[in-house]
């Protein structure tokens, strides 16, 4: 409601809903087939143009008319004055951050950690040596791109240390305009309410993935989803390999969904 109030001057949920319904009329009752249409159906044309269109195209490198509708369904729409981004009852991050919780999970006598190892340099040997492999890399790379390459988005991070206690007053600020080259600025100290004299910020730039880059997001348009289904059939034939994560499942997961999928995988394996 705070957004609707600032944009339209409306005060009540009924007024905001009426404004959205008025702007939805441009769809003429059509079922949304792409991200643009889905966004307009959720929040109307004004908010779509001001807050969604440019940011989304910057993030994904494609027009919103070419992106699937489901991407924007992650956007919570509330007719309340609740400024939280998520609707979940419990929200937070691990104490000490994700690095610390992962380190604790790996700190076990039966677990050896090796970093900077090229799995594909010794793939055949690994497949022979281990009865079960969990693979969370790119599924098309696992099969040597034999059916063609899937598309991914990568990121470039620009870090700065600033001689001030507080730069933006929040952990994450998104930049929804087309002119700003980065999608958001992260000020790390606010995740754990730091009191350091200086602050570190990271400007996050979205870019097309190329070989040698770190892949972050699958691009789930029709072409890629169809190709993934073909790779999924090959994956299902790999009896000793469990594919998982955003890259292995070729799916845009949020953190809680990744954890949920991992727990379900364990249940499937142990049942």
Write the layout of secondary structure elements.
Blueprint: H1 2-8, H2 13-24, H3 35-60, H4 97-106, H5 123-129, E1 133-135, H6 139-142, E2 152-162, E3 172-174, E4 184-187, E5 199-208, E6 215-218, H7 222-236, E7 241-243, H8 245-248, H9 255-270
Parallel strand pairs: 1-7
Antiparallel strand pairs: 2-5, 2-6, 3-4, 4-5
CATH superfamily of the largest domain: NAD(P)-binding Rossmann-like Domain
Q: Kindly, what is the distance between the CA atoms of the first and last residues, rounded to a whole number of angstroms? A: 46 Å
For the record, the count of structural domains works out to 3
β content, as a range?
5-15%
Helix content: 25-40%
The run of helices and strands is HHHHHEHEEEEEHEHH
Structural class by SSE content: alpha+beta
Q: Write down the Rg.
A: 22 Å
Return residue spans where pLDDT drops below 50 for at least 5 consecutive residues: none
Number of strands: 7
Instruction: Return the CATH topology of the largest domain.
Output: Rossmann fold
General form: globular
CATH architecture heading of the largest domain = 3-Layer(aba) Sandwich
Q: What is the makeup of the main sheet?
A: 5 strands, antiparallel
In the CATH scheme, the class of the largest domain would be Alpha Beta
Mean pLDDT: 94
Strand order of the largest sheet: 3-4-5-2-6
Overview of this structure, please?
- With 271 residues, the protein is an alpha+beta fold.
- It has three domains: 1-72, no CATH class; 114-150 and 219-270, NAD(P)-binding Rossmann-like Domain (Rossmann fold, 3-Layer(aba) Sandwich); 158-208, no CATH class.
- Helix content is 37%, strand content 14%.
- Helix 2 (13-24) crosses helix 3 (35-60).
- The longest helix has 26 residues, at 35-60.
């Amino acid at each position: 409601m705070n957004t609707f109030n600032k944009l339209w001057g409306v005060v009540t949920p009924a007024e905001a809903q009426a404004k959205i319904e008025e702007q939805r009329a441009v769809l003429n009752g059509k079922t949304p087939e792409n991200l643009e249409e889905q966004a307009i159906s959720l929040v109307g044309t004004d908010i779509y143009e001001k807050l969604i269109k440019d940011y989304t195209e910057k993030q994904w490198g494609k027009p919103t008319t070419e992106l699937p509708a489901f991407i924007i369904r992650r956007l919570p729409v509330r007719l309340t004055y609740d400024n939280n981004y998520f609707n979940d009852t419990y929200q937070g991050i691990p104490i000490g951050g994700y690095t610390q919780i992962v380190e604790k999970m790996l700190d076990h006598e039966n677990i050896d950690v090796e970093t900077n190892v090229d799995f594909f340099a010794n793939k055949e040997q690994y497949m022979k040596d281990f009865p079960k492999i969990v693979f969370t890399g790119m599924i098309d790379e696992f099969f040597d791109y034999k059916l063609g390459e899937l598309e991914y988005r990568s990121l470039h991070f620009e870090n700065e240390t600033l001689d001030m206690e507080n730069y933006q007053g929040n952990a994450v600020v998104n930049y929804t305009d087309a002119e700003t080259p980065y999608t958001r600025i992260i000020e790390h100290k606010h995740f754990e309410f730091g009191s350091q004299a200086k602050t570190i910020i990271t400007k996050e730039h979205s870019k097309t993935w190329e070989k040698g880059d770190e892949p972050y997001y699958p691009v789930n348009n029709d072409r890629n989803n169809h190709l993934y289904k073909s790779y999924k059939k090959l994956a299902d034939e790999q009896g000793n390999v469990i594919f998982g994560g955003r890259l292995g499942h070729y799916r845009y997961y949020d953190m809680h969904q990744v954890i949920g999928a991992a727990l379900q995988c364990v249940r499937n394996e142990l049942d």
